[in-house]
Design a protein that fits this description.
There is one protein chain. With about 190 residues, this protein is of the alpha+beta class. Strands 1-2-3-4-5-6-8-7 form an 8-stranded mixed β-sheet, sandwiched between helices. Helix 1 crosses helix 3. The longest helix has 16 residues. About 30% of the residues are buried.
């Protein structure tokens, strides 16, 4: 995987994607703590991030995945403030595909932050990494998360029944995909 220069991807005048460092762990934990009930509705890892050390382990793990050329999880900085995470889960290099995952603090929703961040990650996937396919899976009931791939022109491939365990029950996942050819037609150059 071609590494982002200086470990960041500029998005626009307001947003930058930057790989997190261990020093970011307290800020990341504070963001999770402030948004715990909001995030817990749809993300199965929230109850496992209960201390700064848990956030530090996530940052270290993410950095190792980056160094191992398996993916990366940059923080989303909006006007310099950490407001969420977007990332490439493990890159499948032989099939040139990856899945994107993301979350955003409640106070920053509705500003187009995640749409712009996701568009930058897709450009990176298709134009820099030369991947062929990017997928997104969202709980069927998570209308905000589902709106993102729909807004960007992804194709909904189907529903993965009971695709994720969410604390005490399974949730169905909507599966979306975008191919390089489609992305380049929708968003040339």
């Amino acid at each position: 995987m071609e590494k982002p220069s200086r470990l960041f991807i500029p998005v626009d005048a307001e947003i930058t994607l930057r790989l997190l460092e261990e020093a970011d762990a307290p800020q990341l934990f504070e963001l999770i703590e402030h948004n715990r009930s909001h995030l817990r509705q749809w993300l199965p890892w929230v109850d496992y991030d209960t201390a700064v050390e848990d956030s530090r382990r996530f940052v270290k793990s993410s950095m190792q995945r980056y160094l191992d050329n398996e993916g990366f999880d940059p923080g989303i900085l909006y006007q310099g403030q950490l407001v969420g995470i977007i990332g490439f889960h493990t890159v499948n290099w032989s099939n040139r595909q990856v899945e994107i995952g993301y979350w955003l603090a409640a106070d920053f929703q509705g500003r187009g932050v995640m749409t712009r961040a996701c568009r930058a990650m897709l450009n990176y996937a298709f134009r820099k990494l030369q991947l062929n396919r990017v997928s997104i899976r969202c709980a069927t009931g998570n209308s905000r998360s589902r709106a993102l791939p729909e807004r960007l022109g992804f194709t909904q491939e189907g529903i993965q029944r009971e695709g994720e365990w969410l604390y005490d029950h399974f949730v169905d996942l909507a599966v979306y995909s975008m191919l390089a050819l489609e992305w380049n037609a929708l968003y040339p150059g």
